Amino acid sequence: MSKKKVFIHILGARPNFIKASPIVKELEKFNIESKILHTGQHYDFQMSEQFFMEFALPQPFHNLNIGSLSHGAQTGRMIEGIEKILINNKTDFIIIYGDTNSTVAGALAAVKLNIPVAHIEGGVRTLNINSPEEINRRICDQISTINFTPTLSANNNLIREGYSKDKVFFAGDVMYDMAINSNVVRPKNFNTPKDYVLATIHRQEHTDNNLILKSIFEELIKLSNIIPVIMPLHPRTKSKLIEEDIYDKVKTRLELIEPQGYNNLLYYIKSSKMVISDSGGVPKEAAFLGVPSIFIGENIVWQELVDQEWTSLLIPKNINQLESHFKKIMNKNLSPKLSGFGNGDASIKIAEILAKFKYKEL
User: Fold this and answer.
1) Active site members
2) Architecture of 197-330 per CATH?
3) Where do the domains of the chain lie?
């Protein structure tokens, strides 16, 4: 009988947990054991533990408990911690997800120990070299053994950049799989207005800049005069609002709720008239569910959303145009169903390729 393969999944932030869930389940069909190494990047219960319960993910065999630090300090400590774990735990593959600090730390620790790396969501580009996530993406793509691309454009990016075709596989978007295949259930105590906007703000470049932070929330408060605004409040955003002495004002004008689990957030998105977010993933989930969005940021990760008119890009210096963007979107017809993200079977393709991969050729 052949030895059972063991894969270690490096997870630390909300998108990592979501993307890992269907892949872990598919790998089980090939008798592959999945172990979770949690970096502790999201250390708040509602930002981490609830995802393990909701997705029935294996409990982490180790948690580094790194917590919130600067990009350099956080990534450095993660690399050191992950390396120590990998030295003492043999594995056939390291699986990394997306573009977080946990992602790049896992890739760097593994490659220096000559452990093969599979990058889920390779090839994504914004061309913003000042973005930490963009740097993480490029590093991970370069040093990974296999890159599984979520969209046709991401796949084309890697081929155009000269990546060998045997390192690049177009699988489709795992988050698309999750969104269209999940049975989204109405949360308990779900009590919202008939029409509302769902807003999420958490990016460090927005929360750590007091002028941008105040401007965003001032415009959200103005928008609340037209339509109620519901916001699952990220712990970092809350602490910054308190620090800037505007939390009390915000909570009287916006409907602030706790960070939500996956099912609950999808339901809030699906039931909203529009999503306003600086998250890379939330506008994409909204489009998957047929809801338009406004993305606040300098560059959008998923250009497909803009090209297919599911998302409107609003750069922070123009945040005073939030209301006009909202009205414009509400007055136009949505484009046809979002395309280019695969067929809803990305996790199946990924598991099949990893299970059959010839490790001796690495």
Assistant:
1) 202
2) 3-Layer(aba) Sandwich (3.40)
3) 6-173+342-361, 197-330
Spatial separation of the C-alpha atoms in residues 267 and 191, rounded to whole Å: 12
Kindly give the confidence (pLDDT) of every residue in the chain, 362 residues in length, as a single tens digit, with 9 standing for 90 and above.
Answer: 467 899 999 998 878 888 999 999 999 999 999 999 999 875 554 555 677 777 778 888 988 887 666 777 888 899 999 999 999 999 999 999 999 899 999 999 999 999 999 999 999 998 888 888 899 999 999 999 999 999 999 999 999 999 998 899 999 999 999 888 888 888 887 888 999 999 999 988 899 999 999 999 999 999 999 999 999 998 889 999 999 999 999 999 999 999 888 889 999 999 999 999 999 889 999 999 999 999 999 889 899 999 999 999 999 999 999 999 999 999 887 767 888 999 999 999 999 999 998 755 44
Query: Could you tell me the strand order of the sheet in which 33-38 lies?
Result: 62-63, 33-38, 6-11, 93-97, 117-120, 146-149, 168-170
Structural domain 6-173+342-361, CATH architecture = 3-Layer(aba) Sandwich (3.40)
- Phi and psi at 126, nearest 5°, equal -115, -15
Contact (Cβ atoms closer than 8 angstroms) between residue 88 and residue 113? no
Q: Is the dihedral of CA 90, 93, 95, 101 positive or negative?
A: positive
